[in-house]
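Side project, low priority. Logging it here so it doesn't get lost.
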Amino acid sequence: MFLTACTKPENNKANQPQQNKLDQQIETQFKLWKAQQNPQLLSEYYQFMSQYLKHPPSLMELTTTRNYMPEKCYSKRFAIPPKAFWKNVVGSLQLVEKLNGNEYFKSYSITAIYRDPELNKCVGGAGKSKHLNNYAVDFYILNPKESNADEREKLVKKMCQFWKIEGKNFKMGLGVYGNNRYHIDTQGYRTWGKDFKSKSSPCLKDDK
C-alpha cells in the first residue's frame, strides 16, 4: 500500500475503476523497479526520511512520480534522489503533515517529490522546478473530492488562508491546481494556479 499516512477514497466516482487500474499498474511497475535497486540504499533513504516525520510516506510515495505524464515517460517515473538532496524535502513534508494534523484535510496521497532531470525533460517540466532538487511535494487530497464542489472550494479557501497568514514564516510556495491537487515547497513565499502563474492562483483573486 502506498497511502501509508492516508486513507483510501470511497469507490463512488465513475472514474474510480480506471484510477484503481492505473494505481495497480504503477504499483506493479514500482515493484519491478524496486527489485533492481540497491536494497540497502532504499532502506537508508526511507529510514532517513522517517526520522523527521510522525507519519512518513511509503517508499513508493518517496520515489515515484504519479502525476500525469506521456506514456513514453512511464519508465522514468521512479528515482532515488542524490544523498545531498535527501534533507531538502523534509520541511515541505513536515508542512504537509502539519496541515493534515490540523485537519485542513483528513486524507491525502503524495503524487510527486523528486523528479530527476531525465524525467523533467521528458514531461516538459520547468528548468528550475523545485522537484529537481527534491524540495517539493505534490499531493492529492482524497476528501472532499468524494463529497462535492462546495466542499472542495471551502478547502481551497482554507489552504489560501493558511498561506496568507503563515506562509511567509514557512517560506511556503503553494500551487493550487484544482480538483484537489496541490504543490507545496518551502523555497519562497509565492503562489500560482493551474497555468503555473501567480495570476491564476485563487489565493490572489481578492488581492487587487
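Brief comment: Residues 13 and 146 are 8 Å apart (CA to CA).
Revisit when time allows.
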